[in-house]
């Protein structure tokens, strides 16, 4: 994580919690996906526009460590940085911090690639914007 992370502030909504009163594990994937889309926009890459151009960005792997739970009403921040994995793959390094005590609640690495409309991995020059400083 060489560059300062992109920050997304969010708050847990009641319906995102399970019977135990904590955020359901699958909901964390929504949080980090939303943060990745905002990160793309910050790099002037609009997910919908890329798709319309025939550039399909897809997740091919997620590794996530759940460290501390979030509960209804918790305010938190998703930190996102990106790294090049190979010419065709990129990795988003993401963390969720609970703001009240700065506890690291989730640490994830999301590997993505770009596909052609035929579904084949393909290099697109537009993706280089991810790595602009």
Defining traits:
133 residues; 38% strand; alpha+beta; elongated; Thiol Ester Dehydrase, Chain A; five-stranded antiparallel β-sheet
Q: Distance N terminus to C terminus?
A: 12 Å
CATH superfamily: Hotdog Thioesterase
User: In order across it, which strands form the biggest sheet?
Assistant: 1-3-4-5-2
Count of helical stretches: 2
* Helix/sheet category: alpha+beta
Q: Give the rounded overall mean pLDDT.
A: 94
CATH architecture label name:
Roll
Total strand count, please? Answer: 5
Percentage of residues in strands = 35-45%
Q: What's the CATH class label? A: Alpha Beta
The low-confidence runs, each spanning 5 or more residues with pLDDT under 50, are none
The outline comes out as: elongated
Radius of gyration: 16 Å
Main sheet: strands, sense, barrel: 5 strands, antiparallel
Number of domains: 1
Order of helices and strands: EHHEEEE
CATH topology: Thiol Ester Dehydrase, Chain A
Residues in helix, %: 10-25%
Q: Could you walk me through the main structural features you see in this protein, from its secondary elements to its overall organization?
A:
- This protein has helices at 25-42, 47-52, and strands spanning 6-11, 56-66, 75-84, 89-98, 103-115.
- With 133 residues, the chain is α+β, with helices and mostly antiparallel strands.
- It has a single domain (6-131), classed as Hotdog Thioesterase (Thiol Ester Dehydrase, Chain A), CATH 3.10.129.10.
- Strands 1-3-4-5-2 form a 5-stranded antiparallel β-sheet.
- Strand 4 (89-98) and strand 5 form a beta hairpin.
- It starts with 5 loop residues before the first strand and ends in an 18-residue tail after the last strand.
């Amino acid at each position: 994580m060489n560059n300062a992370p992109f920050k997304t502030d969010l708050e847990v909504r009641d319906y995102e919690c399970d019977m135990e009163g904590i955020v359901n594990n699958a909901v964390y994937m929504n949080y980090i996906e939303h943060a990745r889309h905002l990160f793309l926009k910050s790099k002037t890459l609009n997910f919908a526009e890329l798709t319309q151009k025939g550039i399909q960005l897809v997740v091919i792997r997620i590794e996530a460590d759940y460290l501390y739970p979030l509960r209804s009403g918790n305010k938190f921040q998703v930190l996102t940085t990106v790294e090049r994995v190979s010419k065709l793959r990129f990795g988003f390094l993401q963390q969720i911090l609970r703001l009240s005590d700065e506890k690291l609640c989730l640490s994830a690495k999301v590997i993505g690639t770009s596909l052609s409309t035929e579904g084949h991995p393909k290099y697109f020059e537009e993706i280089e914007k991810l790595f602009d400083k």
